[in-house]
């Protein structure tokens, strides 16, 4: 019997960013891997080329990211049912909230058992979330958990919540350290490489260069970084030597550009757009700024720490997993984030060289538990158990 698995997420780029390790593992186990997502969402050509070389079957699923776009998601649901039936899919591994809802609803309409794995990259109900999230989203998850064979979480808070849910009989909850940190790629740059990279970007040795990486949207909260630099100016910092490089694109780009002009921050805050390989810019910076309102874990911050770059982060359930205030950077309370982040930048700027080197070493040590081998080992266990239950392998 041909073994097939369908991986479902909201966007083409999700597989490139998060699922290549799982695809390779499944293919080694003899699975034909199908991937369904909204292929019309933005995905860069270099990412598409890598995905196409994986040897998987791609399917367009007209998913909307918002659960409230009923008509579009109903169409996606019908397409999903058709895919499951036409390709004799018996295993679904779903990611992202809307995809996870549709995948588990599908199990109620297909007239044969479906084995369903859901990786929650951050529940939409969490400590400090709006009341709507902590009621509606929780109730939906509680109902759909009954259709779930395996529920995978990536942080302790979500893991504790998941263990309270009633899964299918024999269902299991797992905690994995994210998708895995590639320390072979994200390692500290040599001093001469850092010097050359900074010179190539036009920065002086006395310049403080902070970097932020992420999609430009409300949750990633890049608007707060503009507040940070306004605070630095009010604190008397020499703005000619203060720089923030924001890497990424998204729906907030025009809004951020307008606010940068209105606040006269053109010489300090720079939107660099999409950068395929962030390592040279990230590894030659003085700090990584991570103001997200919500994170499941936060791979961008883990990658910065792995390169020896201290992180100044908003306190949320994701950053609580690895951030230790004063040890590998600084943690800011969301209510006073601009002030505390500005203070953190000034503290880093004033550090002596020896203190900076000690901090750099602590940053690298703080993320060793997130190396790729650890989630890979757990996913091997999950897929082996799945294989035995579905195909008797």
Automatic annotation (TrEMBL):
Q: Where is the Glycosyltransferase subfamily 4-like N-terminal domain?
A: 26-177
Give the matching InterPro entries. Answer: Glyco_trans_1, Glyco_trans_4-like_N, Glycosyltransferase_grp1
Q: Which domain of life is it from?
A: Bacteria
Q: Name one Pfam family in it.
A: Glyco_transf_4
Q: Which SUPFAM superfamilies match?
A: UDP-Glycosyltransferase/glycogen phosphorylase
Q: Where is the Glycosyl transferase family domain?
A: 197-352
- PANTHER family hit by this protein: SULFOQUINOVOSYL TRANSFERASE SQD2 (PTHR45947:SF3)
Protein's name in the database:
Glycosyltransferase family 4 protein
């Amino acid at each position: 019997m041909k073994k097939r698995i369908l991986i479902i997420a909201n966007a083409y780029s999700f597989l490139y960013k998060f699922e290549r390790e799982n695809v390779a593992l499944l293919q080694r186990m003899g699975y034909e891997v199908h991937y369904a997502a909204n292929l019309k969402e933005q995905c860069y050509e270099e990412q598409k080329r890598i995905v196409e070389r994986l040897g998987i079957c791609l399917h367009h699923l007209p998913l909307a990211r918002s659960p409230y776009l009923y008509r579009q998601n109903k169409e996606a649901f019908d397409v999903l049912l058709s895919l499951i039936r036409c390709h004799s899919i018996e295993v679904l591994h779903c990611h992202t909230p809307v995809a996870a809802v549709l995948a588990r609803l599908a199990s109620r309409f297909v007239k044969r058992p479906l084995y369903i794995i859901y990786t929650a990259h951050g529940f939409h109900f969490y400590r400090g979330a709006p009341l709507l999230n902590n009621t509606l989203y929780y109730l939906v998850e509680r109902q759909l958990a009954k259709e779930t064979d395996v529920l995978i979480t990536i942080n302790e808070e979500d893991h504790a919540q998941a263990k309270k849910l009633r899964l299918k009989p024999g269902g299991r909850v797992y905690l994995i350290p994210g998708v895995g940190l590639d320390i072979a790629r994200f390692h500290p740059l040599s001093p001469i490489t850092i010097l050359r990279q900074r010179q190539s970007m036009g920065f002086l040795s006395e310049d403080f260069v902070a970097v932020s990486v992420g999609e430009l949207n409300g949750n990633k909260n890049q608007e707060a970084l503009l507040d940070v630099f306004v605070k630095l100016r009010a604190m008397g910092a020499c703005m000619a030597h203060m720089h923030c490089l924001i890497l990424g694109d998204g729906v907030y780009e025009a809004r951020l550009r307008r606010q940068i002009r209105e606040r006269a921050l053109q010489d300090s805050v720079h939107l660099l757009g999409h950068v395929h390989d962030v390592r040279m810019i990230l590894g030659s910076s003085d700090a990584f700024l991570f103001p997200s309102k919500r994170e499941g874990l936060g791979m961008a911050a883990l990658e910065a720490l792995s390169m020896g770059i201290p992180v100044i982060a908003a306190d949320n359930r994701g950053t609580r997993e690895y951030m230790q205030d004063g040890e590998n950077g600084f943690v800011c309370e969301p209510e006073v984030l601009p002030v505390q982040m500005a203070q953190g930048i000034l503290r880093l700027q004033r550090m002596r060289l020896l203190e900076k080197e000690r901090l750099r070493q602590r940053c690298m040590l703080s993320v060793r538990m997130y190396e790729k081998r650890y989630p890979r080992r757990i996913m091997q266990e999950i897929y082996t158990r799945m294989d035995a239950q579905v195909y008797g392998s």
